[in-house]
Structures are given as structure tokens and as C-alpha cells.
């Protein structure tokens, strides 16, 4: 998958593993079931999220990312994907993507107004992910027991 900020690649991730896709599908299914009668929707990658710097036309938006899972409000959904900041972004970390997801993409999501960001560390011990990139403030950690916030990040 390609992720780009201002038309510059911030990485092409490796092919998604079976475990990665199984986790994404299950989390996406759980959110989708919960949101059935609501005015928002859960979507799993690949799906373009276009983050404008202002009021650019669709073809002028240069920042396009593909988070693993997003929860979006339906009015911003169009034939090109989603325009704007999703309400929730979930990234499933792997050794190859953890640093980028916890640093570059996290900062992009924060600047663009994403309300909640969750990193799922299914492939990494928490200590390894933290030592690679640090745990940003307000980053939830998905674990087998549910979502928890690291100490001091509530």
C-alpha cells in the first residue's frame, strides 16, 4: 500500500500478512456491527483517506493515506474515498510499519483533526513499540483485554 503526504511517499508497506488481515477484518467487523444503525461507518484498508490542506479540489489533494481501519461520518464519503479527518483511525503495527505509524502518520492524523487514534500492537511487545517510536499522548493500545491508555495518556 502507498501512503503519501504532500505527494511524497512516506512508505510502501510490505504485503499484509494473514495475521494482520485477520485482525483488521475482525476489528472492522466488530465496529461495523456496532455502527449498523448509526450515521457513520467502519472501513478497512485499502481505502483512500484524502486529507486536504484547505479547500482543494479533489484532484488537487496531495495527502492520501490508507489507515488499516477508519470510522467515518458518511457525508464526507465520495467516489474517491473519504475527504477529511476520520473520527477514529486504527493502525495495526508490524515491525516494518510501527515507527512510521507512531510518528509520521500519527502527527499527520493529529494535525488533520482525527479525534481518536488507536495503535494495535499485535505483532510487537509494548516495550519494543515504545522503544522504536515512543507512545504519543492520547494513543490507545489495543490488546486482548480491550483498549487501554498508557499511564498518564488519558
Model description:
- By secondary structure, the protein is an alpha/beta fold.
- It is built from three helices and twelve strands, in the order ββαβββββββαβαββ.
- The chain has helices at residues 18-34, 98-112, 126-133; strands at residues 2-5, 8-12, 40-44, 49-50, 64-65, 69-73, 77-78, 81-83, 88-92, 116-120, 139-143, 146-148.
- The strands form three sheets. A six-stranded mixed sheet has the order 3-6-9-10-11-12, with helices on both faces. A four-stranded mixed sheet has the order 5-4-8-7, with no helix packed on it. Strands 1-2 form a two-stranded antiparallel ribbon.
- The longest helix is centred in the first third of the chain and has 17 residues, at 18-34.
- It is globular.
Which characteristics define this entry?
6-stranded mixed beta sheet, 154 residues, 3 helices
What do the pLDDT scores average to? 74
Order of helices and strands: EEHEEEEEEEHEHEE
* Largest sheet properties: 6 strands, mixed
> Strand pairing plus helix content: what structural class?
alpha/beta
- What general outline do the C-alpha atoms trace? globular
State the oligomer.
Answer: single chain
